[in-house]
Amino acid sequence: MTPAELVSVIRTIPDFPKPGIVFRDITTLIANGPALSATIAHLAALAGRIGVETIAAVEARGFIIGAALANQLCCGLIPLRKPGKLPVPTVGVDYSLEYGTARLELDPGMMRPGQRVLLVDDLIATGGTALAGLELLRGTGASVDHALFVVDLPDLGGADALRHAGVEVASLMSFPGH
């Protein structure tokens, strides 16, 4: 399946999680074997040119995409978790979402200075989560110059915010609006 064909597999849910937000739901893509396989193959082709050592994936849907991609690339996966999910001391970053606030945490023992990390998530909207992940990873000394997403919502400016932070951004598909 081409990225253009994959667009039709993404479910659109209006007014979720609150009125005025149009939620792009990739669970329909994940549940479709050929679509998921094609998605990972397309992302692996993009990531293969980058030369990363490790993938950092954002909880929760980013874990699904990141783990499959890490498997395809034969590299490790570092989870960027919600608070209280890791059994060891963590470092964290608080950030704003388009519909609230959140926090990401990381086990700093998983990183080494200069480690080349690819940031992966299912979707980029305002960029709050991705920028928090970037800050968290760079704060541990990781080198993060690239990010991959299945879906970009370019009207919300998240990919541009990452580019302004020195990150090359790629996605398989984009949807107008929010």
Description:
With 178 residues, the protein is α/β, with parallel strands linked by helices. The protein is 32% helix and 33% strand. It has a domain at 51-174: Rossmann fold (3-Layer(aba) Sandwich), CATH 3.40.50. Helix 3 packs across helix 4. The longest helix is centred in the N-terminal third of the chain and has 16 residues, at 33-48. The strands form three sheets. It has a five-stranded parallel β-sheet with strand order 4-3-7-8-9, with helices on both faces. The chain has a two-stranded antiparallel sheet with strand order 1-2. A two-stranded antiparallel sheet has the order 5-6.
Class of the domain at 51-174 in CATH? Alpha Beta
Q: Point out poorly predicted stretches.
A: none
Secondary structure class reads: alpha/beta
Write down the oligomeric state.
Answer: single chain
At CATH's second level, what is the architecture of the domain at 51-174? 3-Layer(aba) Sandwich
Order of helices and strands: HEEHHEHEEEEHEHE
Radius of gyration, CA atoms, in whole angstroms: 15 Å
Kindly report the CATH topology of the domain at 51-174: Rossmann fold
Structural shape: globular
Largest sheet: 5 strands, parallel
Neighbour order of strands in the largest sheet: 4-3-7-8-9
Helix content: 25-40%
Beta fraction of the residues? 25-35%
In whole angstroms, the N-to-C terminal distance is 25 Å
Please give the number of β-strands. 9
Mean pLDDT: 94
Counting DSSP H or I runs of 4 or more residues, the number of helices is: 6
Family: Belongs to the purine/pyrimidine phosphoribosyltransferase family.
GO cellular component, one term: cytoplasm
Protein name: Adenine phosphoribosyltransferase
Subunit structure: Homodimer.
